[in-house]
Design brief:
Length: 556
């Protein structure tokens, strides 16, 4: 639920607690320096993003090899089963979440990076007009969460105007990248009186759109005297009371449903392919179904894709599984399991986590069905509340993202946003709060461009539905597996390099390691790996790093 209260932060839904003693899981990562932003250039051909500026001399060695003594295990649980987006079969379904990039920057990224790398979609920030928090209101000024407090449905946001939005969608579609919009349709504002579009308003009065009668109030609708949610396990409160003081729309009314549908249909008419629905749990299944039923088909003739924000927790109708009929679910469960495996909650006396636990994964480990999950390693909420990994975890976050793309479970989403110190920080913007163009060397963390991540998108597309096989691990923090005979990866989450001989399952030959290099005109810009008879290959995997090969990277 991408919203912030006047008292700094959001509550974590689906938990039993009082309003004064909310369990918010806000383990803020204060005082931890951000790692330097990786320098890259845009690709010229598929998988041609520049190699990481600096990598260890121990990345790959073909000497001093120690045979891998643990057994290889066939494991097919992670094969993609065809998501609601993309072409199905694991091909072309990866979405880049360019959180709060402005429209011009998104368009440029689609043509220069996402399309050439094989991304199938891009998720963009809420495009509607929103609260513009002024200096007169005190700190924070222009926090990132302004866009989650809508004022009207004109496309006059801090990311750009309507013409820029339409141009961005058209440009991305021309590059083969579909656009998915973050839709805020549960509520309006909780503060302020002026928007980015210059519209004046009050909390329950939005001229020409909504009046007080279009919102839930105490006692007619909400049972709590202050009108906010006290019990996040109470369906009535969750759907009829205000989430952290935000004016809660009467989504059971035809007027509100028609108004919201008109906004979403406008976006569909511009070429948008679907929506991430913010705070979907607070709308409820019945109202979501009614709103979705009013929507047109996309310009491609398909039903719009929906990814619903329904965090785990809460009984019965509040559980994520109860919303499967209304769309896919955001993969908080997926992100949580990866954080536990790659990092966990303890770093002393030894670093936490054990990625070999991931041999059992997917529905077998308790996740939502693969065809109902939009999975991610982190998003804008979780990177701030400490419930998942984030860019502040440096290479651990990168190799976890590479694992997500390799494992093939769900519809994968790669997160790329701005660096921050305080949880409310604005993205890089001008004095009026309008987001400036993305500069990946200054203030932005463009993970979608990282060599290993971008090239693993192509790897993911290439291996398709091939089952996981040739699993091997050291029982602690080194894993390796193939996807059939099409691709293979080794991931080392340990703090020291690991030299082993692996069964890759690949045909004999010389391959480009696509984590550290790209193939162009039959040559590799990085290290190469020789796969011998029977698919065996010897190498050193550097600390907190990966090695990946596939048939498209076969050089000779």
């Amino acid at each position: 639920m991408s919203v912030i209260s006047r008292n700094r932060w959001r509550v974590s839904i689906g938990m039993t607690r009082s309003r004064k003693h909310q369990e918010v899981r806000m383990r803020f990562l204060r005082g931890r320096p951000a790692p330097p932003v990786e320098t890259v250039v845009v690709p010229r051909v598929r998988r041609s993003v520049r190699v990481r500026a600096l990598f260890s001399a121990c990345i790959l060695l073909l000497a001093c090899v120690v045979p891998l003594s643990f057994a290889a295990v066939s494991h097919a649980a992670g094969a993609a089963s065809g998501a609601d987006v993309g072409a199905g079969g694991g091909r072309g379904d990866v979405i880049a979440n360019l959180f709060e990039w402005n429209w011009n920057s998104v368009a440029h990224e689609c043509t220069s990076v996402l399309g050439p790398a094989g991304y199938g979609g891009v998720q963009v920030a809420p495009p509607q007009d929103s609260l513009s928090r002024q200096a007169s209101a005190g700190l924070p000024v222009h926090p990132w969460w302004e866009v989650y407090q809508p004022v009207d449905y004109n496309l006059t946001s801090r990311m750009g105007n309507e013409d820029q939005f339409k141009s961005m969608v058209a440009t991305c579609r021309s590059a083969g990248v579909k656009v998915y919009v973050d839709a805020v349709i549960n509520h309006m504002t909780g503060q302020g009186d002026i928007s980015y579009g210059g519209v004046h308003y009050s909390k329950y009065d939005y001229t020409g759109i909504y009046t007080s009668a279009d919102f839930h109030h105490y006692p007619a609708d909400c049972p709590t005297p202050d009108g906010t949610i006290d019990d996040f396990n109470n369906y009535l409160q969750v759907t009829k009371c205000e989430l952290v003081g935000l004016a809660d729309l009467r989504t059971e009314s035809d007027k509100v449903r028609d108004t919201l549908a008109a906004y979403l249909n406008k976006l569909l008419s511009y070429g948008v392919s679907g929506f991430r629905v913010d705070a979907a749990k607070h709308i409820g299944e019945t109202d979501l179904t009614a709103i979705e039923s009013r929507l047109h088909r996309t310009v491609d003739g398909t039903r719009p894709y929906f990814a619903l924000e329904v965090p785990p927790g809460g009984p019965g109708k509040l559980a994520p599984q109860a919303f499967e009929g209304e769309g896919s679910l955001l993969g908080f469960d997926f992100a949580g399991q990866l954080e536990s495996a790659f990092k966990s909650y303890t770093q002393t006396p030894i670093p936490g986590g054990n990625i070999t636990d991931l041999q059992v994964f997917g529905e077998a480990s308790g996740l939502l069905p693969s065809n109902k999950e939009l999975v991610f390693v982190e998003n804008h909420d979780s990177e701030r509340n400490g419930s998942t990994l984030s860019y502040k975890d440096g290479p651990t976050n990168t190799i976890a993202t590479e694992f997500m793309l390799a494992e093939g479970y769900g519809t994968p989403e790669v997160y790329a946003s701005f660096a921050w110190t305080n949880s409310d920080d604005s993205p890089p913007a001008d004095a009026n709060g309008f987001v400036t163009d993305t500069d990946c060397n200054k203030g932005w963390v463009c993970q979608d461009r990282f060599t290993g991540v971008a090239n693993m998108v192509g790897w993911h597309n290439y291996v398709g539905d091939a089952a996981i096989a040739n699993w091997a691990d050291d029982g602690v923090n080194l894993i390796a597996f193939s996807r059939g005979h099409r691709g293979w990866i080794a991931i080392n989450n340990a703090t020291s390099a690991q030299t082993r001989t692996f069964d890759t399952g690949l045909p004999s030959g010389t391959y480009c390691d696509i984590i550290h290099g790209s193939v162009s005109q039959g040559s590799c810009s990085g290290p190469t790996i020789t796969v011998g008879p029977g698919g065996m290959a010897s190498m050193t995997v550097a600390a907190k790093d990966s090695v990946a090969l596939d048939g498209a990277a076969l050089l000779r």
